[in-house]
Amino acid sequence: METNPSSSSSSSYSLSSPAKKYDVFLSFRGDTRSNFTSHLDYALRKVGLFSIFKDDYKLPKGKDIETELMNAIEDSHFAVVVISEKYADSDWCLKELAKIVKCMGDSGRIRTIFYHVNLSHVRDVASTDAEKQKDNSFWKALEQHAKDPSHSKYVESWTSALVEVAYKYADYVKRDTDEAIFIKEFVAKISSELGASIRTIEGLFGMTSRLIKLDSYVLKSLDTNNVCFIGIHGMGGIGKSSLAEVYHMKMSHKFDGSCFLANIREVCEKEANGLVGLQNKLLNVILGEDFQVEHLKKGINLIRSRLRAMKVLIILDDVNNLKQLEALVDSHKKKQGSENELDIWFGPGSVIIVTTRNEDLLTKRYEKYGAECLDKNEALQLFSWKAFESIEPLEEFKMLSEKVVKYARNLPLALTVLGSLLGPKKTVDLWNSALCRLKKCPADDIFGRLRISFDDLDKVDQSVFLDIACFFKGRRKHDVIEILDSCGFDSQYGISNLVGKSLLSINEVDEIWMHDLLEEMGKDIVRRASGNELGRQSRIWNSDELYQILQNKEGTDEVEAIFTTSVVSFGLTTEVVRSYSVEGWSFMKKLRLIKIQDILLPWLGDCDEPELSNNLQYIYWAGFPCNKLPSSFQPPKLVHLELPRSKVKQLWENRIKPLCNLKVIDLRDSPLFTKFGDFTVVPNLEKLILSDCSGLSEIDPSINCLHKLILLQLNGCISLQKLPEDINGLASLQTLNLYKCHRIKKLPNHLEQLKSLRDLKIDEETIASAIREEIISYGSTGKIGFYPGWFYTSLTVLFLSDGDLTGPEAFPEYFGKLVSLSRLYLSNNPFSVLPPGIDGLSRLTSLSLDHCKNLRCLEAELLPSSLEELDVNYCTSLTSFLDPLKPCHLRCSAYCLDCTELVKKQDGEMTALASITRFLEDPSKRRKKDFKFVVPESGNELPSWFNNRSSTASVSIKLDPNWRNRELIGFAMVICLRANFSKNYFFWNIRVRGSENWETVKAGSMECRMSDDHLFLVYAPCEDTLERIMKQLKPPICDTLEFSFVDAYDERSFSFGACGVRLVYEEDIEELKEIASKYYNDQHSSHSQSISQLSMLRHMGQIESPLSTGLRGILNLEDNSELLEMQQYADEDGPHPESDPSMVGNTHYGVFRNCSGITTNFLKKSVDWFRFIEESEEFE
Prior knowledge:
Layout lengths: L21 E7 L7 H12 L4 E2 L1 H4 L6 H10 L1 E8 L7 H14 L5 E6 L3 H5 L6 H4 L3 H11 L7 H14 L1 E4 L5 H16 L3 H4 L5 H18 L3 E6 L6 H12 L5 E5 L2 H7 L3 H14 L8 H12 L4 E8 L2 H7 L4 E2 L7 E2 L7 E6 L10 E4 L5 H13 L9 H10 L4 H11 L5 H12 L6 H10 L3 H14 L4 H10 L4 H10 L4 E2 L5 E2 L2 H14 L9 E2 L2 H9 L9 E5 L2 E2 L2 E2 L19 E5 L20 E4 L18 E3 L21 E3 L20 E3 L21 E3 L21 E3 L21 E3 L2 H18 L15 E3 L23 E3 L20 E3 L8 E2 L10 E3 L8 E2 L11 E3 L4 H6 L2 H13 L2 H6 L2 E6 L11 E3 L3 E5 L9 E10 L7 E9 L4 E10 L6 E8 L4 H5 L9 E8 L8 E10 H33 L12 E4 L5 H14 L14 E4 L14 H14 L1
Parallel strand pairs: 1-2, 1-3, 3-4, 4-5, 6-11, 6-12, 7-8, 8-11, 15-16, 16-19, 19-20, 20-21, 21-22, 22-23, 23-24, 24-25, 25-26, 27-28, 28-29, 29-31, 30-32, 31-33, 33-34, 43-44
Antiparallel strand pairs: 9-10, 13-14, 17-18, 34-40, 35-42, 36-41, 37-40, 37-42, 38-39, 38-41
Helix pairs in contact: 1-9, 3-4, 4-8, 14-15, 17-18, 17-19, 18-20, 19-21, 22-24, 22-25, 29-32
């Protein structure tokens, strides 16, 4: 049944309304995008009625956004505006709203939802009452816009639009509204108002009366049954599917879920496991979940169990087998062994509609609805619409039109095809000629009537039509054009002609469709042309028939194309490996196209290759059973060669003549294929696909001659170890895929010189491996093999651990340009200073320097501020890191396991406190991020800032009843772990006691492999701990927190020392800053005193002869023990003029007492001594 722009409908809008591109335009602010608006959008789409404009997926790239938005509003039937608290902050939202009101303001097509908004605030935006302006976020937002010169001229229209929608079109979602129920009711309401999609059913002829009749069948059935079963039966082309589809579109919003399963007969005939796939689709569409049904019985059980409580609308289109009904809707039959109990699949009020040509399939459960042809007037309107784009024929063609309708027997499909055929013929003589041919068709010969349109095509378009009817129905238009063009057809033009004549259509996902009667007609034409002699058919589409032709050697020169697939159903392959005569191929000399998919042919090995036609232009043979192509096969016209999952080891055993027309070679997933011998035989190749050829180990250097190659797919070639050094000849290469080629250690030199390359697909493992090898090689040779500029924005993780990298000179200049790196592993390298450029890695969040035993100093200014975690575990020479006495921009967690030299040089406790202070100063981090710090213990006491302490491994805190009135932001914890702790990890737990119960959460873990006592400091924000627990407690009353540290394997472990906890409030951060500041000032003051006394010493002069090997000076000694100690150090370390004459007369040794901030012993070599003095002067 076709469209009539003047037909009536139950919709609120006339079917003569101009068609629009979108049913609904959604306007919303980003604060509701991923919650309410997302759920609303999904609900509208699930109903199946709407084309929705939502800016995150409907805005075309590369076009002016504002223009596109305004055009979309004009081209929408309805607007749904979700006004949230921040809606007016956006000038985009306000522009949309003003345009919506301008276009739809008086039409009743605006629906506004006020989401968590005080409606009076929106209505008062135009008020001058100061009291109403107070605390009004919408008024304040408009005031801000008024101050912006680029917005001020629009503020008046924006204000007016807000006021209008607030008074006229308001729906409310309050904070206590059940949003699921609101959305369901809102969608049902707008669905009812809009009716079925106007774009889709605009003007269907005769549809209104048939819908009313069908609905009466449904209502009558539901009067006596919980579930309604309707069977619409009738001949092909009469309009059964159209009626069912429109009913689904108009009524689906009244059900909990709905699904329209189209073309069931065809799906089951052509698709592997077709019924199981339909079960999957039924469940996925209705429930919105991704089901994986493996077999029919599981699908039946899932449908029965998941839908039995739901009111559903299910439509099965074109059923031709009882098993299809049994697998999908076999509800309400009597259970086995029971007289009265029914097997229930669907909930009360459900409606099941089946369309079929076979009335006998409809059991007694089904109300039978006999589909009717159009009446005379409806048929004439449909024909006229197709022929003249008017519901009435032109006056001079009126009688002729009535004759055509009569001969077409009012059948909608025939009327559509004939109207498209005759419309362009502008003379009465041409019409009379066509009518003469119609008269010759028997009354019941529908094919005869339809064939008139086929006969009117030219030879090329006839070939395109027959190929599509026999092979390509339901396939993507782009793929079909590619295949047909390889056979020499201008198929884009031909398909366009066939669509114009209503012999084809292109669906919404760009697939080619034709009515099943037209498909049957095309196959009938092929059979008749061969005299029903199988070996003379121009086209073979059935695998059984192909076997017969090959086995019996029935093939002839008449065979042009073979396109067959295996059918898999009910989880079992219906095909078995069948032998056949290879000689059978040799008789089909004019084959132009072969597509063989999933047919089980025996492996032929090294012999008995099929003698294929040299006329072939397109080959697709999945599972090709030979090790190579036959030596006689040298097809000059071959354009496309595709042998996926084949047994091919090599394509040609001997050199062949160049195949100048060959553009595509695809051998993906052929595990035996090892090497492409010579690329010079395919000089014009554009696509080479060798994906997942697991045996491929190398690419022949002759590939460099493929100047026209656009695509090179090598992904998954797990044995491929290298590419040719020089591939600069691939001047046209746009896509190079090396994904999962993990054995490639080196990429081609000068890859960046491929100027056409736009898409380089390399997984991070391959990139990192190549760059790792490159950097390590550079460290030893100083030479760069390739310039990795391609990877600057793609490489996020780089492992350079165990690379024997000795210093800054071991890293190439480009190292600092890997700006997308987020994780860098430099562990176990012998460098003593960091490589240059690390501070430029602005996205680096994790840096591992574990076991870098020569690393002495790690200055903060050499590191990027983006760091969130820094590991220096087992850096046993490290003496300076995050010094609390120096300014530092880092706010990262740090792990310093067994860095014992570090705490000899700087206070470990204060290093940890200074680091957490810096971390908590950043509001974005203290609210969202965890913080951890591990350092060897340098004292016996916990930091005093942790005001809740215990000598055991747990702390309980009794909360003040008014604790909620303060802004708690997180928890800080500290634990001392003894060296005898033998495990690799420990955990901490937080338990919360509510009014009646405890809730326990394991908050985290820390690595703890160490040889000395260590201090572990942890900070966890509330959002990740307490907030989550509180939501589980009802009522949310909490009075006690318990923090405990446990061995993952032994909860009674005695390796834990004292622990401490602090609940961190906003004001505590200032206290922590004061502690750090006081420490800094104290150290600075004591250091200043030390510098003063050191200066005195430097001016004292020599105490003995300048030739003395070590002058001994004693200041304020209080006992002889220090004198002895001083003497010992002097004897051991004093310089000797024999070994270093430059030291004579320039060495002082001393022991200082009562000099605050200075260690007692300064008995060192003069180099260290003066370095200390110089550094002290710098500090001063």
